[in-house]
Amino acid sequence: MKTIDDLIAQGQVAGKRVFVRADLNVPLAGAAITDDGRIRAAVPTITRLAEAGAKVIVASHLGRPKGEPDPQFSLAPVAARLGELLGKDVTFAADTVGDSARATVAGLADGQVALLENLRFNAGETAKDDAERGAFADELAALADTYVGDGFGAVHRKHASVYDLPARLPHAAGGLIATEVGVLRKLTEDVTRPYAVVLGGSKVSDKLGVIDHLLEKADRILVGGGMVFTFLKAQGHEVGKSLLQEDQLPVVREYLARAEARGVEFVLPVDVVGATEFPDLKTQAPSSPVTAAVDAIPADLIGLDIGPESRKLFAAKLADAATVFWNGPMGVFEHPDYADGTRAVAQALIDSPAFTVVGGGDSAAAVRILGFDENAFGHISTGGGASLEYLEGKTLPGLAALEG
Ligand code: ADP
Ligand code: MG
Question: 85, 129, 225, 239: which has the highest count of C-beta atoms within 10 A?
């Protein structure tokens, strides 16, 4: 994959119109940005290009508008915040490939930055039809001389700005994509062992591809979260009223058997914390948590977190790892009574000398919400879906397009 340095050396940056496909899909409350993490993550690549004398054209999607302009998904608030973070004015184009975009790009001096309106205000961006997507990519290509792919959170999408546009222009990966891919390689092709994987979250069916693939790579797999109850049931435990996917029992049994055959250690909790009613996440009202050993889960209990003995067990099983990948909260961390398992795993990663990676939208949010210092982890992925698909062994369209 070519880098920005390669493009600069080839004379494709200075004085050129450089299109940067970023991922500025931030959460909004009205016009207020509630978490600007993705904008911050985009800054280094944009700064680098501007300093190298590019006319920088930044583009992104935001939310899921239906292929036409929809003011609630406008990137205008993002342009303002991006300007603050860059310390320079960012000209905002009121459309993506129309009169405003063309005039904005034509007005850029070397080193200046513009942001186009939401890519998904155009049906061609996400069209399934290759010709329709291609036609939109042609319009985008007409605005620029060079392409830099840096929207890691979108590389698993076969969208015009991610997949079709790089084929039309000299292209390279931006710093963010280069970093993410480097980290993902250390979790797949280039692993330092022992390699421990911690998986949690809600449904096992969401994570089958990841488990399937990591079974071939990891030395140890620790399981918590809602999906653990399907594993516990597969091992013959009763799980009360916990989240259970009966239809996945055969698959989970196959994973356990394959792990045993390969010598991969599966670590399941020995106790759980739960309640007879699901906690109220809105009011955060105190609930009545009880702890139960996994071979004595009461029939009316909903398992909502891993228990105290399991937290110690998990921490011990992570202590001697050289590489740790964690995806999925250990419990319903959104309620304080069921956040301890997730907190314990986060702390174990911080305490470990291993190279530690946190992937997954809710997992990354949990780390922040529980007040951990993000810099204490080796890496927190900016693209939940994209990193999971990479770990499933899938070819990601946006990365394949940058390879070519
Ligand atoms: P990620 O986005 O990190 O991949 P997921 O989306 O798979 O994670 O799962 C996150 C959700 O899993 C959280 O909202 C959390 O409340 C839920 N969860 C965790 N443990 C349980 C459980 N025991 N029962 C039900 N839901 C759970
Ligand atoms: Mg999630």
Answer: 225
The predicted structure's pLDDT at residue 35: 84
Residue 15 tokens, joined = 């004085």
Residue 153: φ, ψ to 5°: -60, -10
* Residues 6 or more apart in contact with residue 242 via CB below 8 angstroms: 226, 229, 272, 274, 297, 301, 302, 303
Report d(CA 69, CA 66) in Å as an integer.
8
Q: Say which amino acid occupies 195.
A: Y
Q: What pLDDT does residue 151 have?
A: 95
Counting other chains too, the contacts that 4-12 makes at CB distance below 8 Å and 24 or more residues apart are 4/45, 4/48, 4/49, 4/52, 4/148, 4/172, 4/173, 4/174, 4/175, 6/172, 7/146, 7/148, 7/170, 7/172, 8/52, 10/170, 12/145, 12/146, 12/170
Q: Point out the residues of the chain with pLDDT beneath 70.
A: none
Residue 253 tokens read as 């049994």
Counting DSSP H helices and E strands in the chain, the numbers are: 15, 17
Establish whether 361 is a catalytic residue. yes
With a 6 A CB cut-off, is 269 part of the ligand 1 pocket?
A: no
> Looking at residue 382, what is its pLDDT?
74
Residue nearest to atom 14 of ligand 1 (CA): 332
- The 10s digit of each residue's pLDDT in 247-277 is 999 999 999 999 999 999 999 999 999 999 9
Q: Which amino acid belongs to residue 131?
A: A
CA of 358 to the centre of ligand 2 (A): 13
Which one of the ligands is nearest to 241 CA?
Answer: 1
Q: Best substitution site from 332, 338, 390 to test ligand 1's pocket, by max atoms within 8 Å of Cβ?
A: 332
Atom of ligand 1 nearest to the CA of 202: 12
pTM of the model: 0.88
pLDDT at 404: 76
